[in-house]
Amino acid sequence: MAILAQTSGKKSTARSASAHSIVFLPAHLTRTLVEMEPDAVLSHSVLDPKRNPLLANTPHHNLDQPAADNDHATGPLSKGPVFATAVIAGTMAVKRTSDLIPMCHPLPITGVELDIGIDVPASALRIVCTVRVDGKTGVEMEALTGASAAALTVYDMTKALSHDIVIADTRLLAKDGGKSGAYRAPACI
């Protein structure tokens, strides 16, 4: 019989974690999202090796296809607002992480922030999920689950316009609190 990690002897402290997912899109889909969400355009590229050397070797996915190849689409993103739906899905996933990942404790989440930015030159989205809790265990899995679910939702919301969408580089960016202390991914973007 599996036993969850013991937290009964731990002190309840403020803890937080941030994770991100990168979603590569065909250029025509990126242009559509920029038209829908112009305030989400990032001022720097998510693939800038000066900001994040770990992404320097990430393959730049050349996904551009003529929009005419996607005649099965019924219109621009007919499922509704992509980013708002992704934020809702990511937030819901954070709250349900213990139902999805074995051995994760249900936690009293005190805050969730999901930010989605459009990197036009890389034809990519950067989704960052930050989770906070006052508890006896960390929220790294909740942050990773939130970023992943938001990325999957972007795929679901946009697949009518293209299936050439790549979800990549889901990773922990930072964590604070707990016995192991603070963590920052090398050269976080």
From TrEMBL:
**Pathways involved:** Cofactor biosynthesis; molybdopterin biosynthesis
Q: Which residues form the Molybdopterin cofactor biosynthesis C (MoaC) domain?
A: 75-178
Region described as Disordered: 52-75
Query: Is Methyltransferase included in the keywords of this UniProt record?
Result: no
Q: What superkingdom heads the lineage?
A: Eukaryota
Does the keyword Manganese belong to this entry?
Answer: no
Q: Which SUPFAM superfamilies match?
A: Molybdenum cofactor biosynthesis protein C, MoaC
* BP GO annotations: Mo-molybdopterin cofactor biosynthetic process
Q: List the keywords (alphabetical).
A: Molybdenum cofactor biosynthesis
Its name, as the record gives it, is: Molybdenum cofactor biosynthesis protein C
| Organism (species) | Thecamonas trahens ATCC 50062
